[in-house]
Write a structure and sequence with these properties.
With 442 residues, the protein is α/β, with parallel strands linked by helices. The protein contains 10 helices and 21 strands.
Length: 442
């Protein structure tokens, strides 16, 4: 098994003992030594641990567990042999069901401390498979001469270096159990040192691999890749520069797709943004539909709509849905998705939702229900439009509990909405990543 590199320059050589008091929002254990907070990787509340320092800062320190004196009852054996070195996961040492409770606590704490909202009514957590769930990933690739092979996978924990791993238990098996095959494949190429990344996109029926190449393939390279494409039953694409240079290695490929609720099929390209966890995504859409209880009288606005992940299933039952997204390419694909699904009651617009949008035509309309699914930065620039639109219900889908709490404070304390319900969705099991949904009503 690969060993962690020693990067302890300028740090105290000694270890220290700590009692873990709680979990931080990123899943690290929190302790206090000498009136200073220490965040300790892979430590759980209630544990007594011996740790070593990895960073010392003015206001806090960081460490990692060296030995466990008293273990938590919630501690489990990690399900992957590479867990101690690979940075792809951070929660495998915690029982999966307790991971959910920890994420719920993180969400509640963010509401309490940032938004000053307490006694939040929680939906039951949306959960799915704990392993093999990941359908999207960007795998780093590096030809490491000293190791005698090409590394394919994720970076080491708190490091820019690629981890030396043989398989990934959270990736869909069509890729996660083939990392060594991909390593051998790249190792056969004449440009093996010019392939920095493989982008993975898996749909209901196909697995697509986009090889980022910084030099042209030789004729033999193309033969090698085509042979792997056939034997592994995958679709291979190459990308020499920007996204517009992505091209199928051999022949025309059928678009990737997967089934969504309300008999919608979402079509997408091999590098388009789609949700990582297909099962949780479907459950998330079902919850949105059940919560909003859409009918033909509803005029709905879907902000940060992407390819139409929520827009199109909502359009099956709402009177009209308007989707808005910052990427013109995604909007074009969303329009194609609407056409392929025979949905005529939906419009799409391109707009930068991180700034004022007063002059946009769609802003001047009324919407009684609004769904917001922003990136990690949140959606504070859009919130003050909600009263102007006449939004009675706002369903906020979040990938960052801190910005959700910040925006909740605006909605509740400034705009007069009430937080009716919230809940976590385990989009990324085995990690501390918290995905959640919150309903606000006038």
């Amino acid at each position: 098994m690969a060993r962690r590199r020693n990067r302890r320059k300028n740090l105290p050589p000694e270890t220290a003992k700590a009692t873990i008091e709680s979990l931080a929002h990123d899943g690290r254990g929190v302790a206090h030594l000498n009136d200073k907070t220490v965040f300790i990787t892979e430590a759980l509340p209630g544990e007594e641990v011996i740790f070593e320092y990895v960073k010392k800062k003015k206001d806090y320190d960081e460490g990692r567990v060296k030995d466990i004196i008293k273990a938590s009852d919630d501690r489990v054996e990690p399900g992957c042999q590479h867990y101690t070195i690979c940075g792809g996961c951070s929660f495998q040492h915690l029982d999966p069901q307790k991971q959910i409770l920890a994420k719920q606590k993180i969400l509640i704490d963010q509401f309490k401390h940032i938004a000053k909202i307490e006694d939040v009514e929680l939906w039951p957590a949306l959960t799915g498979p704990y392993w093999g769930y990941r359908h999207r990933a960007r795998l780093g690739v590096k030809d490491v001469v000293k190791k005698g092979r090409v590394l394919v996978g994720f970076r080491e924990k708190a490091s820019p270096f690629l981890a030396e791993i043989e398989q990934c238990e959270v990736l869909h098996p069509s890729v996660g159990q083939r990392l060594m095959d991909l390593s051998a494949l790249v190792g056969q190429l004449s440009i093996k040192d010019k392939v920095p990344q493989i982008e993975v996109s898996i749909c209901d029926h196909r697995t697509a691999l986009v090889f980022r190449i910084l030099a042209p393939l030789s004729a033999q390279d193309e033969v090698t890749l085509k042979q792997f494409e056939t034997s592994a039953d995958v679709d291979i694409y190459t990308q020499s520069k920007g996204p517009d240079t992505i091209a199928a290695l051999s022949g025309e490929k059928a678009p990737l797709s997967y089934q969504l609720p309300n008999e919608v099929v979402l079509y997408f390209g091999p590098s388009d943004f789609v949700q990582v966890n297909v099962e949780i995504n479907r459950s998330m859409i079902h919850r949105a539909l059940d919560t909003l209880e859409l009918n033909s009288n509803d005029n709905v606005l879907d902000l940060f709509c992407g390819l139409g992940n929520f827009t199109l299933p909502m359009a099956r039952v709402a009177g009209h849905v308007t989707g808005v997204e910052g990427s013109d390419d995604l909007i074009k694909r969303a329009q194609v998705n609407a056409e392929k699904n025979d949905l005529l009651n939906v419009d799409f617009y391109t707009a930068n939702l991180m700034e004022a949008v007063d002059d946009e035509p769609w802003v001047k309309k009324k919407y009684n229900k609004v769904l917001i699914d922003p990136p990690r930065l949140g959606a504070k620039e859009m919130l003050h439009y909600l009263p102007k639109w006449g939004a009675e219900q706002v369903l906020y889908v979040s990938c960052n509990p801190s910005t959700l709490a910040r925006d909740s404070a605006i909605l509740v304390n400034e705009l007069g909405y009430k937080l009716k319900k919230a809940g976590v969705m385990d989009m990324f099991p085995q990690t501390s990543h918290v995905e959640s949904m919150a309903l606000f009503e006038k």
